[in-house]
Amino acid sequence: MKVTVRRNGVDLSVYIPKKDLEEPVISVENENLWGGFVVLRNGWRLALPNLPQNTRLPITVEARRLSNED
C-alpha cells in the first residue's frame, strides 16, 4: 500500500490515503527508519522499503502491512 512518511517536529507520522488515516509512529525497528518496520499508534506494523538514510521527508513509498505474528 502507498503511504506517506513525514516528520512533525521531532515525531514521525504515517498517512495512509486509501484509509484516510494518519497515525504517529510509536516505535521503529531500525534507527535510520528505512529497511525495517514501524509500529503505529493504532497497532499496525508496516514494513518500509530500504532507502538511503538521508532520504528527505515527506516521501510516499510502498509499504507492506505486517500481521502481529510476523
From TrEMBL:
Keywords: Plasmid. GO terms for biological process: nitrogen fixation. Transmembrane segments: none annotated. Signal peptide: none annotated. InterPro entries: NifT, NifT/FixU_barrel-like_dom_sf. This is Nitrogen fixation protein NifT.
